Amino acid sequence: MSKKIHTTRNHSIPEYSVKITKQKGIRMRVTPQGKLIIHANPFCTKESIEKFIQEHVDELYFPLKSSSVRLFGRSFQIRKVTGSSNHVSTCEHELIIQAKDCTLMEKVYQDFLKQTAKDVLSDISDMIFLRVQPILTKKPKILIRRMSSSWGVCHPDKGSITLNSELIHYPVEFIEYVICHEFIHMVEPNHSPAFYAQLCKVMPDYKRRIDLIETSNEKQYLM
Ligand SMILES: [Zn+2]
Known about the structure:
This protein has 223 residues and is of the alpha/beta class.
């Protein structure tokens, strides 16, 4: 397979390189370095390639359905690029989603959110368990799933708690509070004075942490 480099100064399309392939039609991708690569067979003319780029260039950079996301209380603008691998990274105020082709963007993004929830919520649970250890001797199993009406649920009979995967959009201090709350429910199932006494002992600033989330719609899931 030979590689031929084309560059253009045409203002309506970005600079690009052409890689000759045997496949039918024209495809394009952006390298992690931001270079636009066109895959085309030897019969494609320069005109047909540039027409293709003009028609499809927006697909390389167009924003997802929602153009921003909040992660751990911080806002990120979403940027989509195509490239040689599927990957999500953050850079200052941007969340960059790189996928091998445009149709994979949403899946790459959703997989990233799912993995982040799994990794971060387990790490925070480990730290919070150290705080509640005098009360709880065995660390509950952490289950994570998307829930529509609560931030966390505890199952003392099964020795586990379920956390809402949507928590990753909120500040870490609030997530710590939710986990602490559910851990204490393992020994104090109701919101009794004994429950709050334990909560105050383990997390004296819990009220401030609740106030980190803004709307009453979010707060109604607190129980
Ligand atoms: Zn509760």
